[in-house]
């Protein structure tokens, strides 16, 4: 598993809890831009986006 997924998964679980339905990683493993991710959630609101926004730089640094 790509190390970035550990970081992203932990953050999304904390933010969305049981509303996080799935976290998908896709793309070539040797992509220099990192692993691509897709999160599916039951519902999304402004507070969720506000909680995710400050984490995006850490996710990018981790390779997501």
Explain what you see.
The structure is a single chain. This protein is α+β, with helices and mostly antiparallel strands. The protein contains 3 helices and 2 strands, in the order αββαα. The protein has helices at 3-16, 46-52, 56-62, and strands at residues 20-26, 36-41. A two-stranded antiparallel sheet has the order 1-2. The chain is globular, with a radius of gyration of 12 Å.
What's a quick, concise take on this entry?
This protein has helices spanning about 5-15, 45-50, 55-60, and strands spanning about 20-25, 35-40.
Uncertain ranges: none
Largest beta-sheet details: 2 strands, antiparallel
Residues in β-strands, percent: 15-25%
Portion of residues within helices: 40-55%
End-to-end gap? 12 Å
Taking strands numbered 1, 2, ... along the chain, how are they ordered across the largest sheet? 1-2
C-alpha geometry: globular
What's the overall average pLDDT, rounded?
A: 91
Alpha plus pi helix count: 3
Write the layout of secondary structure elements.
Elements (H helix, E strand, L loop, with lengths): L2 H14 L3 E7 L9 E6 L4 H7 L3 H7 L2
Antiparallel strand pairs: 1-2
Helix pairs in contact: 1-3
List keywords for this structure.
64 residues; alpha+beta; two-stranded antiparallel ribbon; 3 helices; 2 strands; 44% helix; globular
